[in-house]
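Page 47, continued from p. 46.
Same chain as before, 369 aa.
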Amino acid sequence: MAHKIYKVGVLTWHYYTNFGSTLQAFSSLAMLRRAGYDAELINYRDPRTGVLSGVRYWLKRAFVHTVGRLIPPFYRRHVTPPAVEYFHKKYFVETELVQTPEKLFELTGKYDCVLFGSDQIWAPNCYNPVYFGAFVSEGVRKVSYAASIGLNDIPDGLVEDYGRLLSDFHSVSVREVEGMWLLKERCGIDASVVLDPTLMTDATVYRGMERQSVVREGSKYVFCYFLNKEHGYSDSVIKYSRSRGLEIIGVSARAEDGKWMRRLTGLGADQFLWLVDNAEVIFTDSYHGTIFSMLFHKKFWTFVRFAENSPVCQNSRIRQLQSYFKIDRRIVSVTSELNEMTEIDYTDFEARLGRLREQSWYYLQKALS
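Result:
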């Protein structure tokens, strides 16, 4: 008789201020808890990020909030916005802080299974053996759900490590077909392809989490969500918005964008959800920006963020969404002419999403049973 798994620890990127990372971590946890598992996020922080605890944490916090305020770049880099902390405290169920392999090994002993979650936790340029199960207690089942390699290749120097560590997994799934083929051809690892966890949660759940931001309800605006610091999107966005009398509001990694848009900072993921859901049109270069535009049935354009020959090209994520949902006409370059778009067939989108959810649920239930 198969062993029933009750307690699951989720190991993923969950502490970044990036909206996609935050919401995929929430959705991974929500997905498991909705299926009846006692699940929590393993609060592992890479010690290279400089996370402190105890007295050292409070001393650093005091320094950052006093002396650090006098140096804006330093302050922004070292302080977690209150809105982000609010979201984490309200929606995350997580363990105590873990920063060492020894503590991680000890902590994971209490689980039936450790699930290695979504996001680019397997990206070669961010390689960390922790996210490949290197320090999980013996006898604990290891499963991945929608883990992403992100890049176009696995370097020769990491192929052996990927193959050795992942061969110890009970079940492996990835987020992109291209990642599945990479693992098979480079490492001899068989993997399934499943939906990003954000797509496994209904829009009604996200709407129940929304928190109105600094924008007045009823305002007519386009919402921009840009991660590329060296983009050339402004001309297209400005031309489109001005011709329709829409205010430009956005979140952008590029500070100079504040010259032509109302650039918002320090937002929580719940405020991000409200801004997407209430916008007239979305402009983004983000994978999760695209996902939430579709979940909320919005008009949107997604700019291709990476050149295909870039060593850090991550376009496989967008290609996967194109393959799933036939959104080719919504994916554009900076030179594209953005005229009024035809209506997106969201009835077809929901039908496709329903079928893909069934397949992903089947994988998850089989992997954990």
